[in-house]
Amino acid sequence: MSSSTGRTGTTTAITDIATLVTNDPSLGGGSPRSSKLESGRGSPLGLIRDAAVVIEGDRVVWTGESSKAPATDNRVRADGRAVLPGFVDSHSHLVFAGDRTEEFNARMSGRAYSAGGIRTTVAATRAATDGELEANLTRFLAEALRQGTTTFETKSGYGLTVADEARALRLAAAHTDEVTYLGAHIVSPDYADDPAAYVALVTGEMLDACAPHARWIDVFCEKGAFDGDQARAILTAGKAKGLHPRIHANQLSHGPGVQLAVELDAASADHCTHLTDADVDALANGDTVATLLPGAEFSTRAEWPDARRLLDAGVTVALSTDCNPGSSFTSSVPFCIALAVRDMGMTPDEAVWSATAGGAAALRRTDVGRIAPGAYADLTLLDAPSHVHLAYRPGVPLVSEVWRRGVRVV
Ligand SMILES: [Zn+2]
């Protein structure tokens, strides 16, 4: 294949795949939005049965029926397993220190617990060394990779000082391109009496220190965190420094976050649990992805986001973990897929699409989240014949092999 493509990377064919999820629009895949318009039939996943994938270097160069796979340097048999794009986890908070086991235990035991929530993690994170934070980050990234996640976004937000936020982003940027500045996670406890001064810091000196290490800017738009006007000021300041917005929106209550996200062309509005019809219409008519994070509702016994309502309205939906030590301490995308199918009205095909191509859309990427010529060779193999088993066999560690950038890493 090298001679035909003009490239010189080693070629490898993975053959005998029972079900290949491509998300390739040219195979009838693409967004659930477009498949619904095609009279509701079929899958958004661009499925190929008895399939093969050919990798050259770090990219996919061919997909098709296994019996028609071209000659390659190497050949690996999938032996009837399913292969899907590596998961794209577009929302996590992995630069932190400390532990909130007691808080979770009290919440699930119906006991009052008076410790400080996010503030507990802020104090532990500030006290940690760079080495401790990086070791923690690396541990959770390895954990996510073993469960099939090959692309991840992560945020600051547990430093809340200029130096601590910049440090978190610098550490994250050593491990991913998808780094988000979230100085506006909560008002820093140091500014409890003067939130306006904290917003000035987040949009001024802190932004200047953080922007070189980040691609995105985020704000927690919620009662008790930042209101619509503050969120608009923060995201607008970030845009002026070259950062692109995403928003924690409408998680705990109705609010202005979703409409603001669409107005500012945010890549994603994350959580979307409490939505008005006007919010759903805004998402359906804009380019902002609705990222649903069911690990948070699971871990707080809260009301589920209504994925069915969003999908039926034509909204592009992503599914991610929100992995963080307080409200959603899971790095498992398969777990989130199972929750979305069981409790949020998604079909298994829709949930798998949202955790792969949907996550990529929430990061405005087309080189990940699909297995098609030109995309990165990021593949997850399951010890199961079909991707449906991710929801059908909840809690079972089905991920048996992971390839990232053309290299087998698990
Ligand atoms: Zn979050």
Model description:
With 410 residues, the protein is α/β, with parallel strands linked by helices. The chain has 2 domains: 2-86 and 369-408, Urease, subunit C, domain 1 (Roll); 88-362, Alpha-Beta Barrel (TIM Barrel), CATH 3.20.20.140. It is built from 16 helices and 16 strands. It has helices at residues 2-5, 32-37, 101-108, 118-127, 130-146, 162-173, 195-203, 205-210, 228-240, 257-263, 277-285, 294-300, 307-312, 333-343, 348-362, 389-392, and strands spanning 11-21, 47-56, 59-65, 74-77, 82-85, 87-89, 149-155, 178-184, 216-221, 244-249, 268-271, 289-292, 317-319, 379-382, 399-404, 407-408. The strands form 2 sheets. Strands 1, 2, 3, 4, 5, 14, 15 and 16 form an 8-stranded mixed beta sheet that branches. A hairpin with a 2-residue loop joins β15 and β16 (407-408). α5 (130-146) crosses α6 (162-173) and α7 (195-203) packs parallel to α9. It is globular, with a radius of gyration of 21 Å. The chain starts with a helix and ends with a strand. The relative contact order is 0.16. Residues 1-5 and 34-41 have low confidence and may be disordered. The structure holds zinc ion. Zinc ion is lined by residues 91, 93, 248, 322. Residues 83-387 form the Amidohydrolase-related domain.
CATH structural architecture of the largest domain = Alpha-Beta Barrel
- Reported by name, the CATH topology of the largest domain is TIM Barrel
* Quaternary organisation of the protein chains: single chain
List of distinct ligands in this structure: zinc ion
- Which blocks of ≥5 consecutive residues have pLDDT under 50? 1-5, 34-41
Helical percentage: 25-40%
* CATH homology group of the largest domain: Metal-dependent hydrolases
* Estimated share of beta-strand residues: 15-25%
Shape: globular
Tally of DSSP β-strands:
16
How much is the radius of gyration in Å?
Answer: 21 Å
| CATH class call of the largest domain | Alpha Beta
**How many helix segments?**
16
The average pLDDT is 94
Structural class, from helix and strand content? alpha/beta
Largest sheet: 8 strands, mixed
Q: How many domains, as an integer?
A: 2
